[in-house]
Specification:
Blueprint: H1 5-17, H2 20-27, H3 31-45, E1 50-52, E2 57-59, H4 61-86, E3 90-95, H5 104-114, E4 119-124, E5 139-142, E6 151-159, E7 161-166, E8 176-177, H6 179-182, E9 186-189, E10 208-211, H7 215-223, E11 229-232, H8 233-238, E12 244-249, E13 255-262, H9 270-281
Parallel strand pairs: 3-4, 3-5, 8-12, 9-10
Antiparallel strand pairs: 1-2, 5-13, 6-13, 7-11, 7-12
Helix pairs in contact: 1-2, 1-3, 1-4, 2-3, 5-9
């Protein structure tokens, strides 16, 4: 016999309501139907779920465990229905590390003002496609080449590369650094989502590489002073941390910022998002304040 959501919902309602009579009223069915649903659930699972007397009821030990899982499954089912029924009234944008950098907050504000009927959700997914391949998002901010023919993309801007280093690093006193300055260093990167690669340096002068798999681990490694990282400007604005400073790598090529989406089934708001983010990237950045510059 198959497990059914109505059986789980019946169990949860009985426990929350406190009696079979109140559960029947809550569910809009007869008390006999409530009893049948609970009995069928106990047959499917092969365990007793409730201790019942004429005056009270309480979950058994097995019932406590089933009740917790039932609440989780019902919440997931409700989310599934809500996702399906809201359809194109919600736009989920994925990103691996730093969203849209300095434009993140302004993008959210302008989107809400221009498209109030389409809810914008930012989803962090530390994968190569920022959640697209996993079905977590409708649109993804990526800073590397999108290889698969399954995805279409548009370049909305470019970002300078910065070197992240410990505050006491010998290079921290400079305003900018070069790729040659970093050639003898240990470089930490995320191989799934990180933008720097050995190809930034000539074959005879490439830094040693160490891999990590999350921005927090990346920052923690850099803060020790034993390694450095090269990253787009978006990381600078989204991840300011004590013990770490960022210096622009003045001779490194800029990083293209792309929005990617499933080519066969784009969200109707895709081109609106591309246009808005492109508009923001074309806006000149505010001048850096004196307090933010290295002395």
């Amino acid at each position: 016999m198959d497990l059914e959501l109505r059986q789980l919902r019946c169990l949860v309602t009985i426990v929350d309501a406190g009696t079979f009579t109140d559960a029947a009223l809550e569910l809009g069915v007869s008390q006999a139907a409530v009893s049948r649903n609970l009995a069928s659930l106990e047959r499917v699972l092969g365990v007793q779920l409730l201790h019942r007397t004429s005056r009270s009821l309480a979950p058994t030990t097995a019932g406590v465990q089933v009740l917790a899982r039932a609440r989780h499954l019902l919440a997931e089912a409700d989310d599934l229905v809500r996702e399906a029924t809201t359809g194109h009234t919600r736009l989920r944008m994925g990103h691996a590390w730093s969203a849209m950098g300095r434009h993140t907050a302004e993008f959210q504000r302008r989107w809400a003002a221009r498209y109030p009927d389409v809810e914008l959700l930012l989803v962090r997914a530390n994968t190569a496609t920022a959640g697209l391949a996993e079905g977590l998002v409708d649109l993804a901010v990526v800073r590397h080449q999108v290889q698969s023919a399954k995805y279409a993309h548009a370049t909305v801007g470019r970002e300078d590369r910065y070197c992240a280093m410990a505050v006491d690093d010998p290079l921290a006193g400079r305003r900018t650094v070069t790729l040659a300055d970093l050639a003898s260093r240990l470089l930490v990167i995320d191989p799934r989502t990180g933008t720097p690669s050995a190809e930034l340096w000539p074959p005879e002068a490439r830094p040693r590489i160490e891999y990590t798999h999350d921005v927090d681990d990346w920052l923690a490694a850099i803060a020790t002073g034993r390694c450095v990282g090269v990253t787009p400007h978006s990381t600078v604005t989204q991840y300011r941390r004590d013990g770490i400073v960022y210096r622009r790598v003045r001779d490194a090529p800029p990083v293209p910022v792309r929005l990617a989406w499933r080519a066969h089934d784009p969200h109707p708001a895709t081109h609106a998002a591309v246009a808005l983010l492109g508009e923001l990237y074309r806006t000149p950045p505010k001048r850096e304040t004196a307090s933010a510059r290295p002395r």
